[in-house]
Amino acid sequence: MDKIVIEGGVPLSGEITISGAKNSAIKLMAVCLLTDEPLELTNMPKLRDTRSMGELLAELGVAVDVGQDSTMQLHARTIASTTAPYDLVRKMRASFNVLGPLLARCHQAKVSLPGGCAIGARPVDLHLDALKALGAEIELSEGYVLAKAKGGLKGADITFPFISVGATEHTMLAAVLAKGETVLNNAAREPEIIDLADCLNAMGAKITGAGRSEMRIVGVSKLNGISYAVVPDRIEAGTYALAAATVGGSVRLKNVRSEHLGALWPLIAKAGTKVTMDENSVLVERFGTPILPVDMETQAYPGFPTDLQAQFMAMVSLADGVSIIRENIFENRFMHCPELVRMGANITVTGREAIVRGVKGLKGAQVMATDLRASASLVAAGLAAVGTTEVLRVYHLDRGFEKIDEKLGNCGARIKRVSE
Ligand code: EPZ
Known about the structure:
alpha/beta; UDP-n-acetylglucosamine1-carboxyvinyl-transferase, Chain; four-stranded mixed β-sheet; elongated
C-alpha cells in the first residue's frame, strides 16, 4: 500500500491549479441516468471516487469513457440493470444517489443501503422520506432499498427537517422528471447544489432557486445530452490555502471561485495569513509572522465547511494561543486529533468541541487517518513539522485529492509517494 513521505519545514512557494470538485462531479455523473443522450463532463477530477462512480454506472449499463484531458463521456442509452449492489455502493456513500434517477427513469430500483462511515452514522432517512413524498413505495430488505413508482414520480412539497446536501441533491435528481411541481424547503445551498441545478437546467430541466433555501422544480418529460464543466473544488482550494497558512510561504491558487470560500478567508486572515484575490485566483502568503489563534465552528453553507475543519485544526495547532473548534455537522469528525497529538499538538476533545492549545512546533511521525479530509490535515501538519512524517492509508487521499504530492511538490514541498 502506498504512503506519503514528507520532510517538513520547507515554506511553500509556487502555483497550484485546482481541479474540478469531487463532490459535484460524482452527483453530475449520476445525471447521465436521466437521459438516453450522451453527457460530457469537462474539468473532471481524476479520483478514486469518480472511478468508483464510473464502475457503478457501468454496472447499470452506462457507457463510461474517461478521456486523457479531464473529460468524461457518459451515455445511458438504455439502463441494463436497476440494481446497485452493495460491493459498489459501500466503496462510496454518494453512489446511493443513483436511486432517485433510476426511479425517475425506470420507475423502479434496488440500491444497497450505504451503511455508516468513519465520520458518523450518516443515515439516509431524509433521502428516503423525500422519495416517498414524490410517490415512491419503499421497502427495506436485506440491506437494500427496494423502490417502486408505478406510473412515475409526482411533484410534492417537501420540507427537510434539517439541512442535508445529499438529500437535497438526491431529491433534485428524482424530481426533475416527476410530473408536476416540487418545492424543496430548507434545501442545502452549497455551490455543488447550484452546479447540479445548472447542469440539469442546461439539459432542459426547470429548476429555480438553487442556492436558496426554497427551490422549485417543475418536472419535464425529457432531458437532453450536453457538455458541462464541473465547478472548481472549493475544498481542495481551501485545503491548499490552509496548508500554505500552516507552513508559511506563498502559494497562488488558480482556477478558484473565491466567493465559494467566503467563510474561510476572514478566518485565515485573522490567523495572520495574507489573502489576495483576483478574478480566478487567490494568493495566500505568510512570511515568518506567527499564526494567531482563531475559534471556528462548522456550519452548512455559507458557513465554515466541515470538510475543512481538520485542515483548519492543523493550522491553529501551531498558533500562539488557544483556539476552540466546534464540529456541528458530523458527530464523529475529530479522528485526526489523536494523530495530530502524536505529532506534538496539544488538543483536548470534549463532545463536539476541540480545545487546541497552540504549540511552538510539530514533530514528524508515522500517522494515518480514517477519512480523506483528515488525511489532508496530516499532510499539512507534516509539511510544517520538523523531521519526517509518513502518512499511511493514502487511499483516503486518493478518493478526493488529485495528484496532491505532485501539486505540493511543485511548490517546493519535499513530499513523495512511496509504494510498499
Ligand atoms: C456531503 O455529504 C459531502 N459528501 C460531505 O463531504 C460533506 O462533509 C457534507 O455534504 C456536508 O457538507 C458529498 O458530497 C459526496 P449531509 P452528505 O447529508 O450529503 C445527517 C467529503 O469529505 N443526515 O449534508 O452525506 C448526516 O449524518 C465528504 O468529501 C441524516 O441524519 O452530508 C450529517 O450529520 C465527507 N439523514 C448531516 O445530516 C439523512 O438522510 C449532514 O449530512 C442525511 C443526512
